[in-house]
Amino acid sequence: MEFSKEKKTILSGVQPSGNLTIGNYLGAIRNWVALQNDSFETHNFLYCVMDMHAITVRQVPAELRRRTLETVAIYMACGIDPEKSLLFVQSHVPAHAQLGWVLDCYTMFGELSRMTQFKDKSAKNAQNINAGLFTYPALMAADILLYQADLVPVGLDQKQHIEITRDIAERFNQIYGNTFVIPEPYMTKTGTKICSLQEPTKKMSKSDENPNACVLMFDKKDDIVRKFKRAVTDSDTCVRYAEGKDGINNLMSIYSCFTGKTYEEIEREFEGKGYGDFKLAVGEACADGLAPIQAEYARLMADKGYLEGMLRENADKASYIASKTLSKVYRKIGFLAK
Ligand code: ATP
Ligand code: LTN
Questions:
Q1: Fold exhibited by the domain 8-186+304-333
Q2: pTM greater than the 0.85 cutoff
């Protein structure tokens, strides 16, 4: 993949903090693939595994290492093409930590305190509310601003982090003159917030303790079908998208993502049928949609040497791009040149 300064840049990533769910796939990775395939002539694509963000919550070292490589294989199995996109690991590029520190000093305590992810995660990990969890958004801003990304495809829960990134970049540009491109979030109409199957007002999360709440990308067909069968719905019997029908709305959005059908088409398809038929159809559509990804993933993981070699090369490529922005920033803020 050749990086060109003339092209616009798209960047995103996932934390290797657990097994990926269909929320990660439908809210984020699926859109990365569509963007890459539709506009690779006009854009640079960078897709990173955010291992530095993952350690804001305690990880088992061997698992983190394994998942980091697995996440790269998942990106590729979903359709990220290393000829078109630069795939790399965050901790392989020291500039993320270096710019992250600088941006910490341009990010306000008050704004970090308002981040809903921080509030949610500190409630969940009350025994480990560490400084990294608090300053997480400044590191995320560094990930994005280092590569002068124009567009960041993410799920709805990350919108607030893109907004703070824009605020940090604008603040810096105001003080030191034009330095950073101001990024925009990219979200599609469906799939931006896939909800828990057990508590359909809450986002589906890979760190949920209830195994029935989330469908993992590598769940077997039987398990997927069973989880959808047990999904919490309501006492109505009619499959229609409506306020207050959170469970059904969520299943409809998942079904729509996997089949490409609109809500009206889905309502017509299930007219006169009950929730049982609908849940079975969602489970099957989901399992069938994931099956080719699961097969491709197994093929890729059979050659870990290839993945590791690619990541080594890409670390240098990403570091080179990142070093341009970092030097500019260091000069502007007054660090003495080497
Ligand atoms: P964790 O539970 O460890 O916080 P997560 O499941 O939220 O993890 P991230 O690595 O934080 O996953 O997110 C990766 C990408 O997937 C982000 O762009 C995020 O917006 C998106 N995403 C995560 N969960 C969902 C969801 N339920 N619906 C839509 N998009 C999602
Ligand atoms: N915070 C993101 C993961 C992430 C990210 C990024 C996404 C870290 N750095 C830069 C896009 C761009 C999350 O999904 N929780």
A1: Rossmann fold (3.40.50)
A2: yes
